[in-house]
């Protein structure tokens, strides 16, 4: 059974940073293309960053240059380093495969002064 457990969210001020983690089980993680998605009340869920099994990355224009996705295949963990956060980054963040499988609970990121 596939399981994604996201953590690391919180309340931060504009310009600050957060690092999200996602523990993955139930799939062959090292061979899976993975992504971070986010969902805000005013937006459909969107893919913000992805990483292939061999480390090639891709980012949404809105986060390019500020967010970095990475993976630790030995730990079966996906990361998202988020820098220079702004209010538009406020959302629930989820990790998942590409294409998506079942969804985890996500982790709330709130950027507010």
Describe the fold and architecture.
With 113 residues, the protein is mainly beta. It has a six-stranded mixed β-sheet with strand order 2-10-9-4-5-6, with no helix packed on it. A four-stranded antiparallel β-sheet has the order 1-3-8-7, with no helix packed on it. It is 0% helix and 49% strand. The relative contact order is 0.33. The radius of gyration is 13 Å and the shape is globular. It is built from no helices and ten strands. Strand 4 and strand 5 form a beta hairpin. The model has no long low-confidence stretch (mean pLDDT 96).
List the helices and strands and how they pair.
Blueprint: E1 3-7, E2 10-12, E3 18-25, E4 34-39, E5 46-51, E6 57-59, E7 67-72, E8 77-82, E9 91-97, E10 107-111
Parallel strand pairs: 2-10
Antiparallel strand pairs: 1-3, 3-8, 4-5, 4-9, 5-6, 7-8, 9-10
Descriptive keywords:
113 residues, globular, mainly beta, six-stranded mixed β-sheet
Shape: globular
Lateral arrangement of strands in the main beta sheet: 2-10-9-4-5-6
Name the poorly predicted regions: none
Query: Would you report the number of β strands?
Result: 10
Mean pLDDT: 96
Q: Helicity level, as a percent range? A: under 10%
Query: Treating each run of at least 4 consecutive H or I residues as one helix, how many helices?
Result: 0
Main β-sheet description = 6 strands, mixed
Computed CA radius of gyration, to the nearest angstrom: 13 Å
- Estimated structural class: mainly beta
- Provide the succession of SSEs: EEEEEEEEEE
β-strand percent reads over 45%
Termini gap = 40 Å
């Amino acid at each position: 059974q596939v399981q994604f457990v996201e953590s690391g969210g919180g309340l931060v001020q504009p310009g600050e940073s957060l690092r999200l983690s996602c523990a993955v089980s139930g799939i062959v993680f090292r061979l899976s293309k993975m992504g971070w998605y986010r969902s805000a009340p005013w937006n459909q869920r969107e893919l913000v960053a992805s990483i292939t099994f061999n480390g090639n990355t891709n980012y949404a224009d809105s986060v390019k240059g500020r967010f970095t996705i990475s993976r630790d295949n030995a730990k079966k963990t996906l990361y998202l380093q988020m820098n220079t956060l702004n209010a538009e980054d406020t959302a629930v963040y989820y990790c998942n495969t590409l294409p998506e499988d079942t969804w985890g609970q996500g982790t709330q990121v709130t950027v507010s002064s």
